[in-house]
Amino acid sequence: MSTAVSSSKSTTSALTAKTGMGGLISGMDTDELVEGLTLASRTKVAKQDQKIQTMEWKQTAYRTVTKALKEFQTKYLDVLSATNMRSESFYNTINATSASTNISVSATSAANEGTLTIGAITQLATKQTVQGNTAASGPLSGKMTSADTGSMSEADVTALLTNIEGKSLKLTLDGKVKTVTFDSAFMASARAKLTSDGLQTAFQGAVDKAYGVTAANRTVAVAVTGDQLSFTASGSQITVNALNEDTATLGFLGLKDGQSNKMSPNKSLGDLGFAIPLESGVETFKTTINGVKFEFNKTDSLSTVMSRINSGNAGVSMSYSSITDKFSMTATNSGVGENIVISEEQGNFMTALGLKGDGADVTAGKNALLTVNGVAITRTSNDIVIDGVKISLLKTTEALEEPITIAMKADASALLEPIKSFVSDYNTMIDLMNSLVKENKDSAYAPLTDSQKEDMSEKQIETWEKKAKAGLLASDPVLRGIASQMQSMMYGSAVKGGISLYDLGITSAGYSENGKLVIDDAKLKTALETKGSAIKELFTTADTGLANKLNKVLLAATKTTGAKGSRGSLIEAAGYESTMSDTENNITESIERENKTKKKLETRLKAEETRLWAKFTAMETALSQLNNQSAMLTQFSAS
């Protein structure tokens, strides 16, 4: 490896200015001469490059440590972590259980050992609902062309048949599209009896033919009453559309393109066929639900309207069933009380939905009723907390049944793995810092220059740079200070609750392990089973708790917030990605200063090279002139 960088040429920067005439006349290697004469200047530039590279590597090493410390802090000391060892609830080992299928139970941080007895659950809490009592959609029907409203004379039927003969329309049943054609068979059937009854028979036959069914298994029923044509399908959605934009045919039948017997979520309010029509002349409907104001335009789709209500703060959920063709609104909160209050300030939108007025059926909410330890209890929700135990009521019981027992018992085994993981990750963190602090620096390996890398393979470069990076933080006072604080705190922390880490079976791994910890599993298990409250106090006491003190040490090293000068020691030294400190730190500022120095050295080098090239070019020019004069003299003497 060392032979790859043995020459003085390979350790310096390349020429930056090659201007002028090379040694065409003198035969001298001008590049080599200029390179040799500027060796000192180029060496300064190369050393400056190496200095900057070293600082960048050092910054990366610092940030690697910062990342490790922050990840440890996030996992074990952050308030949002499930394994936050600063939180008293983390050490709650109470486990609540019950054999009953009528409830589900779980312990909270306030639970204590003991039992609860539920004598009966006589009623579950329910939510108030409002639902339309009739179909929200108008029927899929239309008034056919007739001379007298309400009836179809033979002349009316004959004229209608003439207008629709050979024409077609599309009928969609629950997404299945069929073409209904008024063909010769339809015409023959209708003309056999030029009355409303005859038309009904003909229309039903055409629909049955389109769907390939008979009277025994048909879904779509056609009715003609006077001059009214209608299509029905129990529990299904039917939609009529023009075929090839032939809306005229639909017009003769009194139908509209896209007309349906159910609500279509993607249609605008103005295009929906409500059974109770929207108030004429109103373009914006204003309503209030539980004090929250809503405004809807006629151009808004039904799905948009429902989404706004459901995502709003009114405390309700609105839905539509295409089976029943009814809207319903359910309160978010359960229990007795008026949890759905609807008022209309402009227009009759809620009335059209069937959720307001005489068309609305209101079902009041109920409270949960139960007895616990012989005491009757009323709650508005089926999720209740009693003595630190969360109880979810699932089914009612009979008073004479065997009472439900909830047992709360301490189970410290759940803390075993988190504490072992805490110690393991702590050891990894300490090992990282100690390895960097105790790593030896080999002065024979400096950062490679670009010219050096040109003569080396990728593997050689990788091996060299690994050795060059070693020892960058040897005996580093920042890392030594952090590691020392952590170790002295873990070994000499104030005893709380009458115990220390030693009483948990957590001790030093020995001098050779440089501050790492070791666990006696058996002793830790025993401590968890017998000293739960003392362990909680050891870690969580406000100022002297082990976890709180460790958190302060890590924050003092990795805090990224605040103005420069008030951040953590590692952050002040090297900064951290994606924060203001990324550019506001000591190493970055030093790199900027060194880059300015490098730029000055490069400017001087270029000027020096330019000056030397100019001199050699002048020499070559003079030699060329002398050669020309010599040739002329030779010619004169020959003549």
Automatic annotation (TrEMBL):
Q: Which UniProt keywords apply?
A: Bacterial flagellum, Coiled coil, Secreted
Span of domain Flagellar hook-associated protein 2 C-terminal: 365-628
In terms of InterPro entries, this protein maps to: FliD, FliD_C, FliD_N
Subcellular location(s) of the protein? Secreted; Bacterial flagellum
Q: Which Pfam families match?
A: FliD_C (PF07195), FliD_N (PF02465)
**Alphabetical GO biological process terms:** bacterial-type flagellum-dependent cell motility; cell adhesion
Q: Where is the Flagellar hook-associated protein 2 N-terminal domain?
A: 26-128
**Chief localization class?**
secreted
Cellular compartments per GO CC: bacterial-type flagellum filament cap; bacterial-type flagellum hook; extracellular region
* Coiled-coil parts of chain: 584-611
* Its job: Required for morphogenesis and for the elongation of the flagellar filament by facilitating polymerization of the flagellin monomers at the tip of growing filament. Forms a capping structure, which prevents flagellin subunits (transported through the central channel of the flagellum) from leaking out without polymerization at the distal end.
Q: Fill in the subunit field for this protein.
A: Homopentamer.
- Please give the family membership noted in the entry: Belongs to the FliD family.
Protein name, as recorded: Flagellar hook-associated protein 2
Taxonomic path: Bacteria, Bacillati, Bacillota, Clostridia, Eubacteriales
